[in-house]
Amino acid sequence: MSAARAKAARMKKAVLISAALASLLSTPASAIVGGGAPQTDGVARSVVTIVGSRGNFCTGALIAPKVVLTAAHCVQPGADYKIVDYGPDKQPKLQDVRTVAIHPAFKMQAMINHVATADVALLQLAAPAAGKAPSVLGMPNIPIQVGGRFTIAGVGVTVRGDGKSGGTIRVVSLAATGKPGTLQIRLVDPVGQGTRDGLGACTGDSGAPVYEDKQGGPAIVGVVSWSTGPNGTAGCGGMTGVTPLTLYRDWVMQTARQWGASF
Predict the structure, then answer these.
(1) Contact (Cβ atoms closer than 8 angstroms) between residue 11 and residue 4
(2) Class assignment of domain 149-244?
(3) Are 118 and 247 in contact (CB under 8 A)?
(4) How far apart, in Å, are the Cα atoms of 114 and each of 103, 105, 183, 203, 224?
(5) pLDDT, tens digit, 9 for 90 and up, residues 194-212
(6) pLDDT tens, residue by residue, 132-169
(7) What is the pLDDT of residues 4-63, one digit of tens each?
(8) Where do the domains of the chain lie?
């Protein structure tokens, strides 16, 4: 590729990243779909927004000052990614991502079909995210009980198809349903049980941290991979699919340590 074409490609990616950021910030958000509560402290202190040069945005969580955990399908090869960093002046700035590591066992087609796969990735930041604090990394308590409560914290849209309704960190408590295990956990609003519109992840919440209360406090035990509408229809507000860290925590820890992180 000539220098001119390479420069044009970089500029195009930069424009698309800026467009994704502008879409998020042009109007205030109101909730994770269904009505999650906004938070800036607690588990929300580790949550960051990831924007890509394909115009997409996802959620991630700091597990070390310069290491972000997210979903593999959010950061596929062939695109550039940035973190939206809010400095002391509260104005959004794009922060560089130095390296992306995708779990080697991840299969995109499996994820699209809602089949369990290693939907886990890490981002190495060029510098620590301002005003943020890493969350503790854990694994779900085994066996996972139907009805067990998990908390998700994401920046996704509140209205399906409206990117402008995303960008604010929202937190919601959901309950495990079906046959939760080490490969996949399916969460629903405990009130509607996935049969009618309720609380749940939506566009932009992919990669969001999933927390379970531990003796020492909440710990990340998985990431959000997908969502459906009520009764398995397309959309949001029905079921939230989670990739638990049970089989992948060792890879996460090893990769982060190779980047200089300490736990």
Answers:
(1) no
(2) mainly beta
(3) yes
(4) 17, 15, 11, 15, 12
(5) 888 778 888 888 999 999 9
(6) 999 999 999 889 999 999 999 988 765 555 445 456 78
(7) 555 445 544 554 555 454 444 433 333 354 555 556 678 888 999 999 988 888 999 999
(8) 11-27+45-134+249-258, 149-244
